[in-house]
């Protein structure tokens, strides 16, 4: 098998540039370009396409296909369920598939998990990585053991506030890195459990505090209940919340307008471009994602039943709504939610301004 034995000057220059990008944007440091010849080799298919090989079970095995068909296959298999899904990928490879995935879903966050540091070196030598490494939508996490994965996921997802994610392994990664793949599956299962646990904790917090319909009492009680907030890793800064509300409330009003158009379509107005309207609403849904601080207050202000229903997968507007018109029958429910959000934000704004003006204790 024809493996590369030395580097061209252009590849050395590419390595220098990519190493700087990895350090600057991904905090990954590469000291030198030397590979371990006993475990890793490279086969050059063309000037723009190479394949890494690893020594596995007493033979050299390719990480991906020589014709590159697995790149398109991988990207085609990724199907978003919700517009704000985080895409988790096992395997960085040379980065070809990550670049293609990022181009298909430019607005979605992509977390790439790689267990083989030598592969990152190969990517730095042969890959055109600038677009993906400099994007604020793409993150790379290196791991050796399950504990590393747990730390990466906790750091990446924070307090698991309304997390949606899909995960997939690239090409031959799950077969060549069987043990690491099993570790990833275990960590993702734990993440799912933590997400549900976090949701239940927020619901319980709502139940504990909701003894009054007076919003000012609710907010005061929330801010004073430091023990409950510490459990959720939430700190309330009233001025920051006001600033966020000013931005998000305009988007909420835009969402109400959009939903009214969708409702008009449902009752017979065929002058409305339904696909465009659904796409616009999905964009608004992404932009109106709340910070953990504001989310905590909104969960309480809007009461437990809203918190539960708003997270139910049968209520959220899905990516497929433009193709599946029956989903849009939920527009009336979403319109009620958006109008209630708007009302809550107006009330919260007034009460927080009053609290800020009060003398500090």
Structure description:
- Keywords: Coiled coil.
- This is DUF115 domain-containing protein.
- About 7% of the residues have low confidence.
- It contains 15 helices and seven strands.
- Helix content is 56%, strand content 11%.
- The chain has two domains: 198 residues, Rossmann fold (3-Layer(aba) Sandwich), CATH 3.40.50; 154 residues, no CATH class.
- The relative contact order is 0.10.
- The protein is an alpha/beta fold and 361 residues long.
- It has a four-stranded parallel sheet. A three-stranded antiparallel sheet has the order 1-2-3.
- The protein is elongated, with a radius of gyration of 24 Å.
- Strand 4, helix 3 and strand 5 form a beta-alpha-beta unit.
- Helix 2 packs parallel to helix 3, helix 6 packs across helix 8 and helix 9 crosses helix 15.
- The termini are far apart.
Structural class: alpha/beta
Task: Please tell me what the overall shape is.
Answer: elongated
| Fraction of residues in helix | 55-70%
For the record, the count of structural domains works out to 2
**Major β-sheet, in short?**
4 strands, parallel
Task: Give a brief description.
Keywords: Coiled coil. The protein is of the alpha/beta class and 361 residues long.
Present the secondary structure layout.
Blueprint: H1 9-26, E1 40-46, E2 49-56, E3 59-62, H2 69-77, E4 86-90, H3 96-104, E5 110-114, H4 117-126, H5 130-133, E6 138-142, H6 146-157, E7 165-169, H7 173-176, H8 178-209, H9 215-224, H10 226-231, H11 238-266, H12 274-287, H13 292-301, H14 303-311, H15 331-357
Parallel strand pairs: 4-5, 4-7, 5-6
Antiparallel strand pairs: 1-2, 2-3
